[in-house]
Each structure stands twice: as structure tokens, then as C-alpha cells.
Design brief:
The protein has a domain at 1-28. Helix content is 20%, strand content 12%. The protein contains 1 helix and 3 strands. The protein has one helix at 5-20, and strands at 33-34, 41-44, 60-63. Strands 1-2-3 form a 3-stranded antiparallel β-sheet, with no helix packed on it. A hairpin with a 6-residue loop joins strand 1 and strand 2 (41-44). The radius of gyration is 12 Å and the shape is globular.
Length: 80
């Protein structure tokens, strides 16, 4: 998995803005940023983290081709 720190910073800022506009319910609690053309690798917020409290270091990188039964607070919400 890559570093993508600038993308993580921008993504965390986007979550913050969504929370400021009280729109986090409108985006169904989740959105993703694809890291490759296929869309298989992406970053997202950890499961059960509030939009207003997300930091760049909280953002998790996942590979849709390598999801091994993810669960717990640091993984993707499978309903997303």
C-alpha cells in the first residue's frame, strides 16, 4: 500500500467540510477516493469515526481485491 499523504490530507479536509455543512447524513456516512484506474484500491474513513474528527492519519487504504473479512473500528463499513 502506498503513502498518499497529500491525498489523505485533502480527503480528511473534505470530511471536515462535509461535517461543517451538516451533510454527513446526505452522503450516507461514507465516501471513497479511488487510488487506481480500476477503483480497486481506495482510501476512506475508518468505520464508526465521526466526519468532524477525521485526520489524515486516520484515513485507511483498502484494496477491494484483498478484503479479508474486515471488521473492527479501523475498517470499512461493509454497508458503504
Amino acid at each position: 500500500m502506498g503513502d498518499y499523504f497529500q491525498q489523505r490530507k485533502n480527503f480528511a479536509a473534505a470530511f471536515s467540510w462535509i461535517a461543517r455543512f451538516n451533510s454527513n447524513e446526505a452522503v450516507a456516512h461514507q465516501f471513497l477516493l479511488a487510488l487506481n484506474h480500476e477503483g480497486a484500491r481506495f482510501i476512506t474513513k475508518p468505520n464508526q469515526n465521526d466526519f468532524s474528527r477525521i485526520r489524515a492519519n486516520d484515513i485507511v487504504e483498502l484494496d477491494a481485491n484483498d478484503l479479508v473479512s474486515p471488521n473492527g473500528p479501523d475498517t470499512l463499513d461493509l454497508t458503504a
